[in-house]
Each structure stands twice: as structure tokens, then as C-alpha cells.
Amino acid sequence: MPEIFLILMIAGLFAGILSGIPAMLAIAGIPLLIAVLASFFDAFNLTLLALFPNRVWGVMNNTLLMAVPLFVIMGVLLERARLAENMLGVLARMLGGSPRGMGLSVLLFSAMIAAATGIIGATVVMLVLVALKPMMDAGIPGPRASGLICAAGTLGQIIPPSILLVLLGDQIGNTYLEAQQRAGNFAPMPVSVGDLFAGALIPGLMLVALYGLYLAFVLRPARGAAVLPKGEPVTWAEVLFTFLPPMLLIVSVLGSILAGVATATEAAGLGAVGAMLLASWQGLRFPIERWLVAGAGIAAFILVALRMLGMGRAALDTPAGMIALAGAMVIVLGVLIAAIRLWGRGALQGALGDTMKISGMVFGIVIAASMLALVFRGFGGDRMVTQLMSDMPGGQWGALILIMLLVFMLGFILEAIEIIYIVVPLLGPAILGTEISPVWFAVLLAMNLQTSFLTPPFGFALFYFRSVAPRSITTIDIYRGVVPFVLLQLIALGILLAVPELATWLPQVIFG
For residue 55, with 0-12 CB atoms within 10 Å meaning exposed, 13-18 middle and 19 or more buried, which class applies? Predict the structure, then answer.
């Protein structure tokens, strides 16, 4: 009897999501209705639902999830800072005006901005506005330019720091601990977001390299298209002042996590502060403001760098402590000036509004998924899945490949965050209770989930592109353009499956 209601719940869940109602309501509401219905047939114990408030309280007290709105506002502020046009323009001039040069410029720019924003919608829309026309003017066909923008815009999901990796880190860490304890290992090594950031770095760069090789071989001038002139030569000063500020921010955020001197939440707060300083730069009116804001950014970077080197702590009655205090005061003044200027321009209000919307959607799904997992376990679904996976041909590898195929298929109809909070709690224990590396499993999921943004009909990158692209580029052109990049992602996934060390080597070197 429980098996029947479990099948009804899963079928109703997908029907509810595809019906167009908010995902949060479908993920929480359908399991609740099925649980109440099953209770009339003595197939579900409703007293289990009394545990749901404790689960919600656990989400509210999860300090790791506090990093989500901080990373979101960091990305929104950087997108509003309009650094993209300058960075892409300088890269295009450095690599020339040929189709290959423009395509590689967009790819390199996207890889850099991915490490700073990580917000799919903002990145894709920005690339359409600043890169689509220059690429087509350089002779890149519309479908190929569309595919490149959609694929490059999703790099922020695999290149750390990534909101997707933060959410995966939360779910993988909790599920791994519970699965290992059930398997008899009562002292497993914890899995942190820093492990996932380190594990995803090399696979993310590998994916960028595959994209780059593809572009280098296929980009040719279209018939009748004139190659753009290279324009004025790029000076070292222009390169320095264009790329140094965002690169310092990325190094500070990612480096502080990988160096073990800051948690993901603390690093996200640092990123939000740095993004605020960068976003306010164009609106500063007086030289003293520019000096203070620039000084705040430099002081923050120096303090983080010293902390990475193990020299960041000193008593206040020492010279080093007084210097650190002075630097902190400069940072506070700089951030205050930046906040005032951004508020006066209306940019801060808009960024806060976008952050609340995105964060509300994420946390709504997180809380709803807690209800789904609770009802699923109430029906004994966790035991059924474990038994099913253990009976799979190929053992652990067979179960792993089945999960990867399932995640890829779900990517056609569900969003990545929904897949995380459905698949990991329900199917993850069967893998995470074995000797398979949880970091490798998480990075495999992250790379697989990245394809969900590109696969029609519900690929969100395709929706964002379509919303701002010119009518001359049809929806079929967009679909045709993303096919090679989806295949490249699957190739990268296959390489990662064959060589787990790509995900496990760097975390082992950094964290031991």
C-alpha cells in the first residue's frame, strides 16, 4: 500500500510542477495532500508531520544558507556596476575583431564574470545586450552566437563561488553525514562548501577549455561578413584598471574560502561589501570619496591577504593591531559612502529588491523540499530506494550512472534548485552511504545540473535569451545553437566520471 501512494506522490509532484503553479506549492502541497489521503488507509502516520516545524527551524538556523542572499546581492550589484562593457571591449580588442577572436573574448569574459556573479538570468541578459551584436557583426552566425551566449552564461553554476554549489554543499553535507552514520561510520569527515568549491574549480576550467577548443575550430567568417578592425591597441594601464578590481574581489572571496580563513557565509559578506564598493565607483562626485572607497577596497584585500598568510591577528596595543584597526575604519567609511551613493541613485534599492525575490524563491523551495523529504521517508521511500540501488547491475557504478541519467532527464522539465532538493535527499543516501567520494558526487551533480539551463523546453538560459534577443533570431535558432554546447557538457561529464581525481585532487591538496 505505501508503494502505491509513493508512486501517486511522485506522479502528482511532476504534474503539479508542469501545470505552472509555483514550484514551492507543488513540492510541499502535493506530498501533504497524499499523506493526508494515505492516512485514511492507515498507510501514513500523520504524527510524523509534527517534525516539519523543527525542519523549518533548522533551515532558518542554518548559517551556511545565509551565504545565498549575500552571494545574490554580490552578483546583482556587479551586474548593475556595468563593468561588463569595458571588460568585454578590452578583451575583444586584445584578441582582434575576427569571429574566433570575438567568440573567445566572450567566453573568457563569461568565465571571469561567472566567478563574480553566478546569477544565470543577469549574466545571459547582459551578454545579449553587450555581446550579441558585436559577435554577429564580426561574422558569427546567429544560432552559434546564441548558443555561445546561453552556454557561457551558465558557467557561473560550476565555476566557484557558485550559489548552486552552496546549496549542493548544504544538502550533500547533511545527507552524507546521515548516510554514513546509517552505514555504521559514526565519525565521517564532514563535507564543506569549501570542499565543493575546490573540487569544482578544475572541472569548471576544463569545461571552459572544451568550449574554447570548439570555438577555435568552428568559428569562421560568414559569407559576405566583413571582419571588424582591431581598433586601437590596448595599453597595460587600461588592462590593469579594467580587470584588476573585479579580479581582486574574486581572489579575496574564493581565496579566503580555499585558504580556510573564512566560511562561505563570511566570504559572501566580503563579496557583497566589495561589490558595493565597485558598483558605487561611477557615482562618486568628490575626490575624497574616491580615495576613501578605493582605500576601503585596498584595505579589505590587504587584510584578507594577511589573514591568508596567517598574519591577520594582532592585539590592539601593537603596531600591527593599530594598522588593522585603521584599515577597518577606512573600510567602514568607504562602505558607508558607497551605500549612500548607491541609495541616492536608486541602485541599492533595486539590488535589494532583486535579492529578496531570488532568495525568497530559493528558500521557499528549500522549506518545501523539507516537507517532501519528510513524507517520502514516512512512506519508507528511503529504504525502497536503497534496496533498488543495491539491486542495480554494476553495483555502486550502476546506481551512480542511473542517478546521472535521471538528473539529466529531469533537467528538461525542472529547474536545478528543484532537482537538488528532490534528488539529493531522496536518492543521495544510496550513493553517499558507500565509499564513493561525496565531493566527486557533488561536482558530478553540479556539472549535470548545468545542462538543465540549456535543455529545452524549460531551459532557463533559453528563456532569458529569448526575452531580450532580436526577432531575427528564432527560437529554433536558439535550440540549434545550444546543442553543441550541451554535447560538450556531456563530454566533460564523461571525462569527470572517468577521472574522479579532477574533482578530488585539489580539495585533498588544500584541506588534506
Answer: middle
For the chain, domain boundaries = 59-283+346-512
pTM: predicted TM-score of the whole model, two decimal places? 0.82
pLDDT tens column, 459-496: 778 888 887 888 888 888 888 999 999 999 999 999 99
Residue 40 C-alpha cell reads as 485514511
Q: Which helix (H) or strand (E) holds 283?
A: none
Q: Which of 122, 305, 311, 99 is nearest to 221 (CA)?
A: 99
DSSP 129: I
Name the least confident of 119-123, 325-329, 403-407.
119-123
CB proximity list for 92: less than 8 A, separation 6 or greater: 101, 102, 105, 134
Task: Report pLDDT for 189.
Answer: 83
Phi and psi based region of residue 335 (left: phi greater than 0; alpha: psi -120 to 50; beta: remaining): alpha
Query: Three-state SS string across 430-465, please?
Result: HHHCCCCCHHHHHHHHHHHHHHHHCCCCCCHHHHHH
